[in-house]
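can u do me a favor
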């Protein structure tokens, strides 16, 4: 007989699991003496591939019978082999203890005859089908896609007035957003902030450093939630275009639209008041060479601070400057009559006192002298006030 099948590599087990019944699915092949006459046949055979024109030579050389396999030592690495035949076999060289085998009658396609087996030569084991493994992959839950917008409904704010923002957080899904956080970087000059009408479960925190946040913000997929922020614009805020900027960010978010800012211009508005008295009243009767004291008071009724406040109060002919009392931080020039207050806060006042001596205009004694002051500012209309000095004509008066 030609050499047996070449050595092949296969992952097979030779051990039945404990308690399992052996399955007669192996083939034990004996070398035989076949009395059939020599003949050669051709046939088309299947297998791993279709192979036409194969030659079959008679008589036979091996007799294969079903067998079981138990008590295998040592334990092979391939696992249990009780899964039944898979239609493919791997054949191994076999050597068994000597046994006496009887001749037997054989019938197959190639004829009837008697064959005599001798010793077993090979063992053919069925292929074990690989177990089907099901892999379950748990996909992460897609995050919520949050977006944010805000508006205070105006394009310009007035220092000294209140301002309220509406912040809208929307969720385009696919998941609900739970415990999101909104962080707001406040505009410079927005004071005394609060968040009225908080939604249930939302907490508002003012850190006192120009930043506030809302935590515990829940937004259903496809839904939205609104937050409010209110505060007072500092009355000292200077005018500017697009300088009052409020920016907010919401996290977490899967998209790139989780930040928004609202930019407004700053337009201060102030209302100046001006009063001028002479010796504490609107008019005074005085003699020549008498000193009189004028008090000029400027006030700001707000709502914004008034900047570059200037009062023009030049003494007219007939009055000679003696002295003045100027408020701290302001300047007065008696030669030009310009009193510079610079900045006057909302609700504040400033008073300038000027003492002057009543005299003639040339060689003429006027019957009265009208002293008018005007006040103006960058962000307020001009106002004016007049005090009147009436001059008594006495025996000692000059003509």
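np, heres the sequence
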């Amino acid at each position: 007989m030609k050499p047996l099948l070449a050595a092949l590599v296969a992952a097979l087990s030779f051990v039945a699991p404990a308690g399992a019944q052996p399955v007669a699915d192996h083939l034990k092949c004996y070398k035989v003496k076949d009395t059939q006459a020599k003949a050669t046949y051709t046939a088309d055979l299947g297998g791993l591939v279709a192979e036409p024109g194969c030659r079959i030579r008679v008589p036979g050389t091996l007799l294969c019978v079903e067998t079981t396999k138990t008590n295998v030592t040592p334990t092979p690495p391939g696992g249990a082999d009780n899964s039944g035949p898979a239609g493919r076999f791997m054949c191994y060289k076999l050597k068994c203890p000597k046994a006496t085998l009887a001749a037997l009658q054989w019938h197959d396609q190639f004829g009837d005859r008697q064959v005599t087996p001798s010793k077993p030569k090979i063992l053919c084991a069925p292929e074990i089908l690989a177990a089907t493994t099901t892999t379950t992959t748990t996909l992460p839950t897609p995050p919520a896609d949050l977006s944010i917008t805000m508006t205070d409904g105006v394009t310009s704010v007035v220092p000294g007035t209140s301002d309220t923002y509406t912040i809208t957080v929307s969720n385009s899904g696919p998941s609900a957003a739970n415990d999101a956080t909104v962080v707001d970087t406040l505009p410079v000059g927005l004071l005394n902030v609060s968040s009225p009408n908080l939604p249930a479960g939302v907490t508002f925190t003012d850190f006192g450093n120009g930043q506030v946040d809302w935590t515990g913000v829940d937004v259903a997929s496809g839904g939205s939630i609104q937050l409010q922020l209110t505060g007072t614009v500092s009355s000292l805020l200077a005018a500017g275009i697009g300088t009052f900027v409020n920016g907010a960010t919401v996290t977490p978010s899967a998209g790139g639209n989780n930040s928004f800012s609202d930019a407004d211009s700053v337009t201060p508005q102030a209302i100046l008041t001006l009063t001028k008295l002479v010796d504490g009243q609107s008019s005074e009767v005085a003699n020549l060479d008498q000193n009189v004291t004028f008090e000029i008071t400027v006030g700001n009724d707000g709502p914004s601070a008034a900047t570059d406040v200037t009062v023009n109060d030049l003494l007219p002919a007939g009055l000679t400057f003696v002295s003045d009392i100027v408020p701290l931080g302001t300047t007065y020039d008696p030669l030009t009559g310009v009193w510079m207050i610079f900045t006057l806060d909302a609700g504040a006042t400033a008073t300038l006192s000027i003492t002057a001596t009543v005299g003639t205009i040339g060689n003429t004694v006027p019957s009265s002298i009208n002293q008018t002051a005007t006040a103006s500012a960058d962000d307020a209309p001009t106002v004016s006030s007049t005090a009147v000095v009436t001059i008594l004509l006495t025996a000692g008066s000059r003509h």
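Residues 26-126 form one domain. hope that helps!!
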